[in-house]
Design brief:
The protein is an alpha/beta fold and about 200 residues long. It has one domain: Phosphoglycerate mutase-like (Rossmann fold, 3-Layer(aba) Sandwich), CATH 3.40.50. It is about 40% helix and about 10% strand. It has eight helices and six strands. It has a six-stranded mixed β-sheet. A hairpin with a 4-residue loop joins strand 5 and strand 6. Helix 2 packs across helix 3 and helix 5 crosses helix 6. The longest helix is centred in the N-terminal third of the chain and has 17 residues. One of its GO terms (molecular function) is phosphatase activity. This is Probable phosphoglycerate mutase. InterPro entries: His_Pase_superF_clade-1, His_PPase_superfam, PGM_Phosphatase.
Amino acid sequence: MPIPPLYYIRHGETDWNAEYRYQGQKDIPLNVKGEGQARRNGRVLAEILPDPSHTNLFCSPMTRTRQTLALVMEAAGWTDSDWAKSVRFEDKIIEFSFGDWEGWTLEEIKEREPELYWEREKDKWTTCMPNGESYQMLAERVGEWLHSLDKPTVVIAHGGVLRIVRHFLEKVPELEAPMLKTPQDKIYYWDGHEASWI
């Protein structure tokens, strides 16, 4: 079945994003830049989706996505609407786990666990981080959620999840999907047939 239109907003920047520190399932709040990105995306969303009442609204339950949701809704002027109150907090779109590497920078990983780092560089799709997930594992839970959508959907979630969404929608090969860009200051829009950034 084709996937209906999707408006995907990645959470705004956190200090760990700015430090290139693996975040995963650690609950890190937005920084000031991230708050501005969320507001920008809220204003744009209101322009391209003037009537959201016929769409689903999903959000990852993590702090940074909840904060982004609140700021997006405020900037769009939808905070008091019945639609905004019907948000579904979905565990299947929580960011994937970096396991023992959460809180580490890439340089720290290279220094502390060089063999596993290079093994993962060769194949990020199937290689798990220590006590964490692989993109293949993430694709199983995200794919189940994505293919259950039955009408246009707004979702606020994470970079790793967006890579998997793009893998399914744009038919991006498995070994290329983990390298896809996931900007925090744009909305990824799938119109049912093609993708664009707004």
